[in-house]
Design a protein that fits this description.
mainly alpha; two-stranded antiparallel ribbon; 6 helices; 56% helix
């Protein structure tokens, strides 16, 4: 066939790079479990922070006549993202050398935790979903924490 180019040379180069690049283990499964246990034992989530997480996730749900971003979000977060945000916020606090979760931990991780758990109206272009969730979270952060946050 004329005009058709093959990608075989690219795959060969990628294969060479992958084979030629050794992967060095820096942590093992037992280390991960030990770190997880340390985080669970020593990083505190104040009741107010747990309440903020629950409220944040609740505000993504269009219930009781409440529209989220003009009805563009039709199914918001549930219990699972609430737990995931709390766990991620604890891990973030640990990595920052803190023994307790602060609002910034929640703000930094809410988008990434909720991103794949939100359902949008069928008329929403998939390329706009990220922008819509960021817009929703900007309003929600203002309501929950009382300040605007840059959602990324």
């Amino acid at each position: 066939m004329t005009g058709v180019q093959t990608c075989a040379p690219i795959y060969e180069v990628v294969d060479e790079i992958v084979v030629a690049t050794p992967v060095n283990k820096v942590i093992n499964g037992n280390d991960i479990i030990e770190i997880r246990d340390l985080i669970n034992k020593y990083v505190y989530v104040a009741p107010k922070m747990k309440e903020n997480i629950a409220r944040l996730v609740d505000l993504t749900r269009p219930i009781d006549g409440r529209e989220v971003v003009g009805g563009k979000i039709i199914i918001g977060g549930s219990m699972r993202p609430s737990l995931a945000i709390q766990r991620a916020a604890k891990a973030n606090a640990f990595l920052q050398g803190r023994q307790s979760v602060i609002p910034q931990d929640i703000v930094e991780l809410a988008y990434h935790t909720l991103n794949h758990r939100i359902e949008y109206d069928e008329d929403v272009d998939p390329s706009e979903e990220s922008k819509i969730l960021k817009e929703a979270l900007s309003h929600i952060f203002l309501e929950v924490f009382g300040w605007n946050a840059d959602v990324h």
